[in-house]
Amino acid sequence: xxxxxxxxxxxxxxxxxxxxxxxxxxxxxxxxxxxxxxxxxxxxxxxxxxxxxxxxxxxxxxxxxxxxxxxxxxxxxxxxxxxxxxxxxxxxxxxxxxxxxxxxxxxxxxxxxxxxxxxxxxxxxxxxxxxxxxxxxxxxxxxxxxxxxxxxxxxxxxxxxxxxxxxxxxxxxxxxxxxxxxxxxxxxxxxxxxxxxxxxxxxxxxxxxxxxxxxxxxxxxxxxxxxxxxxxxxxxxxxxxxxxxxxxxxxxxxxxxxxxxxxxxxxxxxxxxxxxxxxxxxxxxxxxxxxxxxxxxxxxxxxxxxxxxxxxxxxxxxxxxxxxxxx
Amino acid sequence: xxxxxxxxxxxxxxxxxxxxxxxxxxxxxxxxxxxxxxxxxxxxxxxxxxxxxxxxxxxxxxxxxxxxxxxxxxxxxxxxxxxxxxxxxxxxxxxxxxxxxxxxxxxxxxxxxxxxxxxxxxxxxxxxxxxxxxxxxxxxxxxxxxxxxxxxxxxxxxxxxxxxxxxxxxxxxxxxxxxxxxxxxxxxxxxxxxxxxxxxxxxxxxxxxxxxxxxxxxxxxxxxxxxxxxxxxxxxxxxxxxxxxxxxxxxxxxxxxxxxxxxxxxxxxxxxxxxxxxxxxxxxxxxxxxxxxxxxxxxxxxxxxxxxxxxxxxxxxxxxxxxxxxx
Lengths: 327, 327
Fold this sequence. Notes:
The structure is a homodimer. By secondary structure, the first copy, chain A, is α+β, with helices and mostly antiparallel strands. Chain A has 2 domains: 2-172, Ribosomal Protein S5, domain 2 (2-Layer Sandwich), CATH 3.30.230; 175-316, GHMP kinase, C-terminal domain (Alpha-Beta Plaits). The first copy, chain A, has 9 helices and 16 strands. In chain A, a hairpin with a 2-residue loop joins strand 7 (58-61) and strand 8 (64-66). Chain A starts with a strand and ends with a strand.
């Protein structure tokens, strides 16, 4: 029985991934930049079952046995690992998130990053970080950004070989905090995988993609220079561009709720009033309010007082996916 | 003393005007389609003052003397009429709207349509409808659509000569109702004239403009065939495209309020539930809910019960700008 366990953080994108140039390889239409979220993590243990009579992978998530599409997605991913390692064994995967699903934080990034690391190590492979990031990408696009630590850029690339993420600055480079305003725990009506496939139906997606190198340059530079004003402008613009594509696809995808707009507008008003904070919204209703650590307490209080906000969580920049002891 | 009076309706655009190819001539970046709103109107009386000592135009709006920028805009418009008529007289303009400003209905379209008709007639000119529409366009772009009656298309054109609006179907062609959900009477933070000038700063405007012929075809055909399902899809898509450009311009323009989204989502849910209704939002927070007359009573009640909606108004398709008796 070969086992390994790994931990990975979810991440919040500042320049966002929306749409694929290749759906099956999850090659994104444009590059993206994100920050790992410390304190939040998925912890995954995998055991390659040497009993060859075992014909199926098994998955337990937060103590609950999982079957159906979610298990199939994990099995498909493990097929890639089996192929790389020349392995003909089934796996037992036991995974836990320390944040509830529906807490406004996508768990597929941390889940497939942790699974990529644990499954390859347990199979006797020791992939270099770029190869591990490429592998994680096959499970969930944004998972490739949860492999390296701190502030991360995913280079879109043009093939499986050159599409992976790498650190552009370590976590301690800039003490940013993601203050997550949680509005709703309702499940998404359209998941990200389905949503990505719709991006091309918007007449605006090509323009958004063509403009991405400019946004990546602005965002990367703002992070490297710790220039919050420049950072806020490009982060909000990029989020709005993604939702512009979403709301103009066929069918249109509306992830914003009334409370989403209320938080976006309150933060924008606070910034015009001298408070350094900005917002970004993923494929869900919750708002990620980004600020510097020095003003986080104030922002948490402000955001928590906005009608419609049910809960607030805060996370600083987190480290890379890493092996942990098998319990 | 040469006097004339005219009345014109505001209009609601189904394929929207946003951005100019030429700011000073108000040549739009793309064509648009609208419906005049019956029951709502601006009534304007003009007198060319033959006392040549009078050196200034005067404007009274809803009984209040107006000076400053609003008067200057009217004077600049009257300069065009003076030039056409070879006139060297100042004017007294008395205008009234039967709908309050800030009722969710832009008044500049009906205002400049009524003024174009009254001022030219009082100056002894009898312009054919296309020329009148072109003239109204110089005062406010969308005013050119309030000159003809019913369902109207403004052909973008490429010069002052070929940019004007014409009827594509008379008011009685299709008994549509615009149910206006009024959320706020607060004044816009960014007026339309300023907003149009920002359209080109969005990386999405070119794609929106390039796609406009397709939307115009779909919308025109849906109106001519009275196909509500096709109409609803293209009207909502077009509104979302305009707001996509607005929210991604520099600076971004957010006209949607939390209540705007609440109404949009309630109407969308009702439509998925079999109720033929759709929404469109102009450069303000209020929502125009378009439905057929048969279901208008139901829609008015439904919209009025949505939290945040302060008032509801309803208007059917209206006629052209027309002369009225000078009181």
